[in-house]
Design brief:
This is Probable hydrogen peroxide-inducible genes activator. About 40% of the residues lie in helices and about 20% in strands. It has helices at about 15-30, 30-40, 40-55, 70-100, 115-130, 140-150, 210-225, 240-245, 255-265, 295-310; strands at about 60-65, 70, 105-110, 135-140, 155-160, 170-185, 205, 230-235, 255, 270-275, 280-290, 315.
Amino acid sequence: MAASATPPGKPRQPSISQLRAFVAVAEQLHFRDAAAAIGMSQPALSGAVAALEETLGVQLLERTTRKVLLSPAGERLAARARTVLEAVGELLEEAEAARAPFTGVLRLGVIPTVAPYLLPTVLRLVHERYPRLDLQVYEEQTASLLDGLAHGRLDLLLLAVPLGAPGVVEMPLFDEDFVLVTPRDHWLGGRDDIPREALKELDLLLLDEGHCLRDQALDICREAGRTEGTPVTTSAAGLSTLVQLVAGGLGVTLLPRTALRVETARNDHLATGGFANPAPARRIALAMRAGAARTEEFETLAEALREALRPLPVRVAGG
């Protein structure tokens, strides 16, 4: 005996074309009109509805020579069939949006020492060039961002590199120098040739543990010859508070140049100083998962961002 096409115990599934035919008849209550409405021949439509009834094991229609009526089961299942077809339509629309670049949701993670200074440029670029992109921004520290990227909670990161994280691709945007921020009457304030060695003995204020900017500043200090035993005052969770502590005379700090105007412009109790070349610097990049489905889109966004960031006091990467 020939084997059944459907495994025993496994019910057959209705097809989309069967559901479309049934819904059309339920709406028109006339086979010819229903067939015309969905562009199907009347025999094909009748066959699709009959096949659906066989598949479901339920009589959906009451057929007479003059009219078509929905059975009680047909009344109930017609509403369900419409819901299924609407969901299929939404699925197809979503797939079409996914095929189109710069549409749908993009979840961007940003570190706190970048977000206030670069997001205006990022948001303006997205608004003007990619209006169909639903950009959602999450400000978190580096470790949390990398975890979110690895587990699919985030799509793209904007942060300081190198990360040294496996499975993460970095797309450099720019390099920026660090600037020494001091109280107004500090002996290093206003200079543009500060040697790194000056960091050896300064009362240095840094961000709390977990901020990559803290680690970068400590690396710069170590390179300058600052010993591990030299005290470092950790007093602030954000750059704004850090700068206020400097203005109050509690010490000095290092700021990335992109943060300088926002954090120091309105405080006349501060002075700034630049380092002699080569000045200590950090690199900012976009980061994505290796093999990300939207790799080409993200690379295009990185290139657009490089151009948009040129007016800032940074050295834009070559791509």
